[in-house]
Amino acid sequence: MPMTSTIRRAFGASAAAMPFLPQCAFAQERQPWPWQIDFQAAASPTMERIAALTLSINLIIVAIVVLVTALVVYAAWRFRASRNPNPARWTHNTRLEIAWTTIPVIILLAIAFPSFRLLYFMDRVQEADMTLKVTGHQWYWSYEYPDHGFTFDALMVQPEETKPGQPRLLATDNPVVLPVGVPIRIQLTADDVIHSWAVPAFGIKTDTVPGRLNETWVQVDQPGIYYGQCSELCGVNHAFMPVMIRAVPKAEFDEWVSQAKQQFARQGERQIAEAEAGGADRGVR
Ligand SMILES: [Cu+2]
């Protein structure tokens, strides 16, 4: 891949922060890419705020690094031994010490306030249109649509079965389908060990803990395919339980729901029959 396109893609990801650069090639498909150095483009209000906060904190970091480096270089040059054969012996300066204590406190407070505001914003959705329940298993995810009354498992597409256009180790057999433009409550739990359901473009990385129900939310800005992975070391196949989400307009979602209800009802009956006949544990492969 030519270097310029790599750089353009890398910067395109933060297009919200840099509107003068072209949008990245993965605008409709959010996934990692070679030599990635920035976030995937934001696809939810939460991720937009995370990207903006990261940018402003980075500016503060750069300013501090430049200031401290300049002071060190100046001190090394101005007070070098050849120019100062008899060094000064004083050690304290009250005014300077007050300044270099209070200024960092003010900077930390300036970072803390927007950080807490964002944490509370991410924490809870006020009025959700629907709920998605995510359960982590060793080593796949299952998804329940309690408002629509069906559940299904999503297993990774094995590398040898990956179809053209499907990203290796990220595609699943049953993508999660979500409507765009509406707030969705996401409840998360696990049935064996701690997993973490993470979708970078949504700004979500929430642990799924056995015996606990965690909650977060998303409002997907635009249709597309979004990828994520389990982000809590959960066992030998931790790297092979990806998240694949297809965000579609509301009408298309309703159509999918009516078709999914039948498809997954049949699948459920088959699984029950298999279990009764002593079928294999599908979690261990
Ligand atoms: Cu896991």
Describe the fold and architecture.
The protein has helices spanning 3-12, 45-78, 94-123, 250-276; strands spanning 29-30, 130-137, 140-145, 150-154, 176-179, 184-190, 195-199, 204-208, 214-218, 224-230, 243-248. It is an alpha/beta fold and 285 residues long. It folds into 2 domains: 45-123, Helix Hairpins (Orthogonal Bundle), CATH 1.10.287.90; 130-276, Cupredoxins -  blue copper proteins (Immunoglobulin-like), CATH 2.60.40.420. The strands form 2 sheets. Strands 1, 5, 7, 8, 10 and 11 form a 6-stranded mixed sheet that branches. Strands 4-3-2-6-9 form a 5-stranded mixed sheet. Strand 3 (140-145) and strand 4 (150-154) form a beta hairpin. The chain is elongated. Residues 1-27 have low confidence and may be disordered. The structure holds copper (II) ion.
